[in-house]
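hey so i finally got around to running the thing on that chain from the lab meeting. sorry it took forever, my laptop kept dying and i had to restart like 3 times. anyway pasting the input first so we r on the same page abt which one it is
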Amino acid sequence: KWLEHGLPPRPGGIVGVPSLYINMDRLFEGFVRKIIQIVARWLRRTRGLDITVKGAGSGKPLVVSPRPKAYLRPDILIEVGRAPVAVGDIKYKLVEDPLKSGPEGDRGAINQVYTFIHGWNVEKGFLVYPSLTGQTLYECHTLKGGKKLYIIALNVYEAPRTFRKLQTSKMFKTLCDFLVELAEVKGLENKW
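ok and heres what got predicted. didnt touch it at all, straight out
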């Protein structure tokens, strides 16, 4: 009753409040992985692109001697022709510019993906965040040494409930373009 009136319980009074905990990090991570897997399957079926999206499993050890330790487990591993081509991490946080330092940025995530790229020996890495602008888009940055870092902003309000609605969404087109770019398949760009 005290919640309805905005009053705290009387001193010494114990009030039971039912609660529900939802791990939004895992929920968002699962949603993003599933949507990217659906898009990859569609590209495989309709365009013949041999692309696979999955979790990293047990990962790759960062420390290899005297025994393997500190495993690198990105949220998403993208393979083309059974060879890893990109690693990604999904962050459920609102970030204006991940490349900035301070509260507006997420430099820790940039460092994390940079480590994943080098540890998995791939040329590309990516970060996925919920969009602040209400648009699904991605941008590519070139890292020192020529490797690529993609920042994806995903409009979660656009999340379709059916495959047909997904197929006609901006999210679908953007993720198709992104996966094709990751796979570096010439001639498939902008054919949908």
